[in-house]
Structures are given as C-alpha cells and as structure tokens.
Amino acid sequence: MTHWGIQSNLVKKDDVEAMLAAARHCGSTHQTFEAIPFSDQIPTVDGDRPTVLYGSTNIMRAAAESGKWSPGVFSGAFTCRDYDDHYGGSYFNHPCEVMTLRQIAMSRRDPDATVFVRPNDDHKGFAGGVLAFRQVREWTESLLTNNAQATMDMQVMVSNAAGISREWRAFVVRKKVVGCSLYRTNMRLTERRESPKEVMEFAEGMCDIWTPADVFAMDVGESGGSLYVVECGGFNSCGVYAADMRHVVAAVNDHVGRLAATGQIWRGGKA
Q1: Distance from the CA of 210 to the CA of which of 118, 139, 173, 219 falls in 20 to 30 A?
Q2: Cα(194)–Cα(227) distance, rounded to whole angstroms?
Q3: Is the peptide bond before 71 cis (omega within 30 degrees of 0)?
C-alpha cells in the first residue's frame, strides 16, 4: 500500500484536508510534516516504502532532487515550450515564444501589442500577467529587483493575449482523467465538482498525443467555444479545488502498486 506524506503548513488548508481525507478513505498509511518558510529542506517523512508526497512547490522540488522517496514526486516536462511543441494548435498560447528576461527586454516587438507573459516552467517563479509590450522593460526591471528567483537568464513564455471563459483542472493518471473540477469562470474563482464529458474526452485525447508525466494535472480552458490545454502541472503541489480526491488518490495508489509489482520502484529509493 502506498504511504502518503502530506505537508500541513504553507499549503491551502482545504487542499491538505482533502488529501488527508482521501488517504484515509483509501486506507493508505499517511503522515503530515511541516516545512520551514522560505526553505527547501526536505520533508521528515519515512522513506522505507513506496511513498507519495504532497506539498509546496519548493519542497517538492527539493524532495525530487534528493531521491529519498520512491516514487515520491512525479517529475516531468512541465514547460510551455513542451506544450507548444506537442499540442500545437490545441495549446491555448500557441504559437508562443520562449525567451530569457534579457531577450525580452531587448525585443523589438510592437510596443502597443498586448501580450501574456509567464514563466516557461512550472515552478511559479512569478505570476503570469497581461501587459502592453511597452511595459515589458519596466516589468522586467521590477521583477529582477523584487524577486530573488529572477535572473536575466530566467526563461519566460510570451504569447498573444486572449480570454478564457471557463477553466477546469483534470487529474490524469496513466493517460486517464480520474478527477476533475471547474475552477474559474470568466477569470473569477469558481470551484465546482464537475467532469463534463467533452472536457474529459479532450484531455484524454491530448494525453494520447503526449503526456509530461504518468501522474499530473492538466488545466483545460474554453475560449470561443473551443477547448484548449492551458497548462499542465506537477501533481504533488497542485491545488485540488473541488475535485473528488478519493478517486485520484485511489488511482495514484494503483499506479504506484503497478510500479512496485514490476520492480520499477523499490523500498528506500528510486529505481
């Protein structure tokens, strides 16, 4: 049986409670741990059995790099460049351009163009936003001054700005959607447990094309009557919104059990 290590602080309380309730429902052993603010110290969680962790982005990244847990964290190719390359016109920000802060500050794009800018990766180094390109230089200087993670070599994604009417978070395990929640309507937070057939079919169709990991979250957006991949994210630190995490945790447990049965993971470390 999969053991779960769940961070109890610096994470949305509702998410922690949903994950703990799901682990209990599935009969999984579990424990909580606290993280030190602004630290990447790895969790104090048992590592002598197949274990899955859930917590804040920095802690999950440090845990993945440590190799202490198996599987621990489901790492993957969570970058805008990957989404654009694999999903093409089904990626909401297609076509996009990935460049460094240095390149974006020197770009000769139309200064009156409205663009969307966000980190290329899934580490949430800063919040994405829409701005006129003439504001980019000032925005870049402010980011470098106020964000310790920002450097001139940080990669960002730039694309034309467009609106999204509804957004869902689909939890994917082995290319199948195992949980889903509406989380935004016309840019307003709207948490509602729902799994529209068309959203699930779209997400699984995209998974047949490419997946960044065996277990992850895919955000699907509706714009102009069509569905698009907004982004994908690591399962271990994503918000759960109103999804039924009992089904998600059960599917993750089954996946980890398959990995253990085939020798792809083992007690006390990664394969």
Answers
A1: 118
A2: 16
A3: yes
